Amino acid sequence: MKSVSERWSRVFITSVSPCVQEGDWPIKRIVGESVNATAGIIVDGHDRLCARLHVTRLGGATEEIPMTQGHNDEYTGTFIAEAPGLYTYHVRAWVDRYGSWQEQYKRRVDGGVPETELKVELLEGAALLKEYAVNAHRDAREQLLAFADEYAAGSVRAPLAQEPLRLALENDPQRGSVKSTVITVDVDRELAGFAAWYEFFPRSSASVPGIHGTLDDASARLEGIRDMGFDIVYLPPIHPIGTTFRKGKDNNPEAQPGEPGSPWAIGSPDGGHTSVHKDLGGLPAFDRFVKAANKLNLEVALDIAFQCSPDHPWVKEHPEWFKKRADGSIRYAENPPKKYQDVFPLDFECVEWRTLWEALKDIFEFWIKRGVRIFRVDNPHTKPLAFWIWCLARLRNKYPDLIFLAEAFTRPKTMYTLAKLGFNNSYTYFTWRHTKEELTTYLQELTTTNVVEYFRPNFWPNTPDILHEYLASGGRPAHIIRFVLAATLSPVYGVYGPPYEHLVANQHPDREEYADNEKYEIRTWNWNDLDSLQTIFRRVNRIRKDNAALQQMRNLRFLDIQNPLMLAYYKSAGPNAIVCVVSLDPFQAQEGVVRLPLEDLGLPAAAPFQMLDLLGGERYIWQGNHHHIRIEPHVMPVRIFQILRRVRTEADFDYFV
Amino acid sequence: MKSVSERWSRVFITSVSPCVQEGDWPIKRIVGESVNATAGIIVDGHDRLCARLHVTRLGGATEEIPMTQGHNDEYTGTFIAEAPGLYTYHVRAWVDRYGSWQEQYKRRVDGGVPETELKVELLEGAALLKEYAVNAHRDAREQLLAFADEYAAGSVRAPLAQEPLRLALENDPQRGSVKSTVITVDVDRELAGFAAWYEFFPRSSASVPGIHGTLDDASARLEGIRDMGFDIVYLPPIHPIGTTFRKGKDNNPEAQPGEPGSPWAIGSPDGGHTSVHKDLGGLPAFDRFVKAANKLNLEVALDIAFQCSPDHPWVKEHPEWFKKRADGSIRYAENPPKKYQDVFPLDFECVEWRTLWEALKDIFEFWIKRGVRIFRVDNPHTKPLAFWIWCLARLRNKYPDLIFLAEAFTRPKTMYTLAKLGFNNSYTYFTWRHTKEELTTYLQELTTTNVVEYFRPNFWPNTPDILHEYLASGGRPAHIIRFVLAATLSPVYGVYGPPYEHLVANQHPDREEYADNEKYEIRTWNWNDLDSLQTIFRRVNRIRKDNAALQQMRNLRFLDIQNPLMLAYYKSAGPNAIVCVVSLDPFQAQEGVVRLPLEDLGLPAAAPFQMLDLLGGERYIWQGNHHHIRIEPHVMPVRIFQILRRVRTEADFDYFV
Questions:
Q1: A286-298: per-residue pLDDT in tens?
Q2: Nearest CA to CA, how far is A350 from chain B (Å)?
């Protein structure tokens, strides 16, 4: 409890929003997005309040924005986050003594109170203005005193003017005296809020089967990826791979000669986290890759996995950064009695933790200097949260355009906390949410609770680690369904592309992941296959770019459709509105009646409107709330409608007038 | 945002509940009620956590309660508030390093890891125990070191015992290292949580019409009030009444000679807030009244209205406590252009505010010393909130059994803030909530949101200031409906008794209040009238006392009943369960089908059960979820059922076995 002295003010700010844990953590915004700040503010009795929103760009100026009183003593003010980096905002309020006096004075005048009584009140107004003048700047002081004199002289109409009110407001010595919690706003660039990610293994990008692809081979694939409409190419680790306890095909504990190993077993005598595998072409090939990507307006995201193979140079150079067993050997990763001897975890709590933490931060800086601004962080939840607070704050402070994606498939509170402490994007449970109930419940949590203020989902239908049963068994329709759900439910999404687009979905018999997994072997893909889903990728990404409604998360609204195997929802942004109807059944035809909330969508109740299916191109003419939709999954399991409000009638033509 | 250094711990407490504004204000409990504390706690990786609830009675000892892990990383612990006054609680957590080691060790043993490897791990366990021993008390230290030696000697079964785990837990040097916000618990005595209030004007308690009743006349009414089952008698102000600008009958601005004036125009040459009106018999009669009440196990609540008539002694003795107009006259109350010249407000912000605040606090202390422990505070929202924080904390610290009822019929945020800052009971909007929608929405807000942690409603169907249209037009059924709603929806309720029980409900033509209002004149009432609602009062108060379910607020659950003019709800407490079905229509018969959630009520789905109507005495035999109820308001507009679970069947008799 605060002490009485801290509270001895007549004004109480009872709440401020948006905020996360009363300001303990920042809220997140994308450049150009607004913050609609609301504060509950009360005062005893009936005096008028003034409230201002104070917005500061870190290291910049403070702006004061007047707040307006709404229903139930809620005051609101809005500002726009214009540049990446940190802003803070807080609310200040005070009793508007002069304004309260003036209001009562006006009511006296309007109520016909005699002049003799008004003159007594005028003296009080004059006294207030004189008090306000004491610390005012010279010009204002003179004006305030002039008004005070006029009041004292008995000029009963003088306080009805606006000017003394304005002057008083700006010079009230109690102005801004009550201050709310300060709330930080972490502002990201656009790509953190609207982006399509494409993941592929560069070593699988050669044209000749069985040959280890290089980053130059991968560069040759970029144009195709760009043409499919993706914004970010994300590469699994590209570093030298250890040989000690190297894993073979399908995670076989013993690799056969010639097997390439897992890219997550980082480090060999050739180097560690700041080296590039020599079969990929080394650093020069990487630099060419980044350049080629940027030329195509693509950005490169790297996978940062803080773990070492037993052959990582740090094992010899910095044994102090690893945990030892009592016999002096380095402790490998394990989940007793299982052992993962190809990986040494780092000991974030070792005696030399400061040098380790700096070295890890330096890894990011190394790649930042080579043009990388986006990082997918592997398993951040197995490293101390305090490390991420420290590391991300320092890096983002220097490079406000960085984007960190947390690959934390773990418990809800940990995932949410990683987002609070600075990760800009997060992997989600979307990958495992397939039924209407699952999808609706989870999306409501992500879009309608306070989670939306700090957790920015990045929806993935698949990853090299996860191939869900639904994709494994549902064929082409299932792949389209899950891709469209990811790309339309969430403005940020990604796909582990090559196997997905070719509908390669053989599950490993023991695990929920791909068989013949690229994590352990080199594959070859057809990079220009019109029969693959590449066409769908291209069309859906085009639709996303053309429709502002699909570029936000908060605007998702589910629609009633009386079929548990169909999901319907809409998103709107200004005049743009998109309605998606998705069959969740990849096998059988499904039909249902969807209910459109005409008023919310700005649609006429009494006239027809057009629904343009952006995938198929059909233009439906609809009228009213309820519409029957039948979906045949083998034709196209989803509809993405754009609402075109206008349908011309005879009244629109000249001759009708 | 907290600095990194404050956060450098692997453990994060993400939330603690119950709390009000993250611990800024206390939560409230009644003596004997429990606090079920929950904390969200996470750690990176897979280590085990320990969490303890630390509970301190202010000025007393601290108790440590182990918390148990539930779903979604929520840890819970419970304590009971045993005495009135302040408690605090907070959560402490830490990584259980030994426990984590031991768990992994067990999995190694179970997984058949060879002894040689186990022995390496044992050395690590030994090292941990040695570290724990450093600051342990002597006995524990010796035991820890003995176990460490045993481990070091290679005794592979030793860590499977419970004792080293227990010792380690109690002696972990990191024990309790992460600490949550401290939350205060304000504990009230029973009467703040379960009580029936009866308000009457003592001057109307004489037997002879037109005669000013005394507090001795009022004493004679106490037995009747006690017999009706009330716990608290609440008297409007009993002080000398001013004559300057005295109000006449029905708020007439000019009193006729002999009119008694409003008890809220406090103060005359006879005295102020610490005097008793001489026509009431002065202080000696008051002392006799308190004594008589207490003898009957009734408590007296006084009305404290911090305002003065122009004749109040303070006007001459302490002119510095009043606001002056510019012409030197004291500012009377006004709502321009309306004037209330019979009342001078006090200036809480005057230069001498400290002496004024002390004097106001002394008023409470004066009556406390005369045996009063319950105060109904008039219009607290027109006095600075800071005054109440200061005043209530000081008084409650000295007298933890005080109960303050806030008479603030004002805006929601202000009402809630007054409750947060210390008022134990609050007037509510119940007085204006009459439709099913209004009642349901409001009660959901009071019982299912965080409001329940600090705002303790006191439901009043009427007051001397408020006679709602519903009562004015609905006759006897309306009076029964509103009384039973107040008494069964809320464990604390009150009634302005005399006009209510006699169904006197003439509205003033211009205002939503009683005509011929007792505020301005003396009335005479029949204090023993079997045809009045006194019988209903008695029966309902008896039902409340006999049924624990009606003595709580949080346990309210609304029931589905397919009629917008009928309201159904239940409350249960342990084996006691009450179902109320109320017709909101005071004129016509209504019928509906109520749906009972059998499982929640612990009722058999496949067997009959009894429903005893506690008002009428009928015993219904019901079976299943749905039950048709018809209510004829002129017979009895409400049903208060007690559920009697047991209905004997032939299987219960000996011969059946």
A1: 999 999 999 999 9
A2: 13
